[in-house]
Amino acid sequence: MSVAVSRDQEFLQGIARIAVDAAAPNADEVDREARFPVESITALREAQALSAFVPSELGGGGVSFEAIAAACFELGRSCGASAMVFAMHQIQVATIVRHLEPDSWFEHYLRDIASEQRLIASVTSEVGTGGDMSRSIAAVEPVGEGRWQFEKQAPTVSYGAHADDLLTTLRRSPKAEPGDQVCVLTKRGQHELQQTGTWDPLGMRGTCSPGNVVRAELPLEQVLSTGFATVMNESMVPISHILWSHLWLGIATDAFDRARAFVRAAAKRKPGEPLPMAIRLSQLMSELSLLRAEVSSGLAAFVAASAGDRSELSQMSTILRFNNLKIAASEQAPRVCTGALGVCGIVGFKNDTPFSVGRHLRDTMSACLMVANERIHETNASLLLIAKEV
Ligand SMILES: Cc1cc2nc3c(=O)[nH]c(=O)nc-3n(C[C@H](O)[C@H](O)[C@H](O)COP(=O)(O)OP(=O)(O)OC[C@H]3O[C@@H](n4cnc5c(N)ncnc54)[C@H](O)[C@@H]3O)c2cc1C
What we know:
There is one protein chain. This protein has three domains: 116 residues, Butyryl-Coa Dehydrogenase, subunit A, domain 1; 102 residues, Butyryl-CoA Dehydrogenase, subunit A, domain 2, CATH 2.40.110.10; 159 residues, Butyryl-CoA Dehydrogenase, subunit A, domain 3 (Up-down Bundle). The chain is built from eleven helices and seven strands.
């Protein structure tokens, strides 16, 4: 077995333990109280999982992107909020790793993630542009002596109060166009978060994502040198869509497993009697298989497109491919959870049975809002008019 394969296996064994021992037992309480999944994130820190994707030469775990995606799936099966926090952090880490310049400030920063297990939150959405990641209103502006500052009105900052650092998108300067953006990393102590709202949502309650005004002052070296348009196409958007869809698949898989357990329990109680819900379970399995196939082919396509110079990731057909993954997975995951509810009936509807799927349904209902599907359709519609091949 190669070193890389055994590294991935060891990492995933650790994640499976955390999913069972820390994420699953606390998932209902995290959801009910809309509280941060502290047990999962503490366990992930202890297992050095926050730096799993940091290259080993920088002190990280050096695991593959496929292993990170598998970890999101595994955590999603136990606790959607834990999986989402993990996925969002890994999106930021992977973005930095993939656009790293040798000997840059960011190289030292990745070493800090490995040694200190720092947790990064994301500030891409903005009041005024919504989930349109490709435009910013707030800008970085010089304040003298090589230092810069910004203030951004953020409608949703997941686990902002629990994060060590923030990755924020901004206009390159006060005179820059909305699409001329950069990515800026600020560490705790360099930024201040002023909470502007509450967080009592329908689902993904443990992500603790209220609005905030983010103010920061930082040295120029903490601006990622690659322009955000490239970062967005080559990394942030496809990686978000892949990791999110893996955790949505995880949640849907657990809902299906609960429905299956319900049908098996019913079959045991009435051996030999026809079970109409067993037919529904079979139909549900087809729905889950569709989701699984789309998610795994999206991952394979991304890994293949990342192998070379990554230029394929900026082609219109590829952008459409990963946008479609997000739309399909975000619609299919709640469909599977609704189907599981149909199989289980009232014991699935109740919040306190082994077959409860209310949390699963509510968590997956956030999927179509995490960058509104209508926005993605609008982008796709424009691309379809000009793309040569799709
Ligand atoms: C659980 C969760 C956690 C999140 N965490 C973060 C985070 O940590 N950091 C972060 O930056 N963001 C985060 N987001 C994303 C962020 O909340 C939203 O993307 C952003 O606030 C946009 O909000 P909005 O729903 O008002 O969408 P908008 O994009 O502003 O859209 C508003 C409405 O207009 C519709 N609409 C928009 N464009 C079109 C169009 N072209 N055609 C038709 N209808 C359209 C949408 O469907 C929607 O109904 C998170 C979202 C969720 C659900």
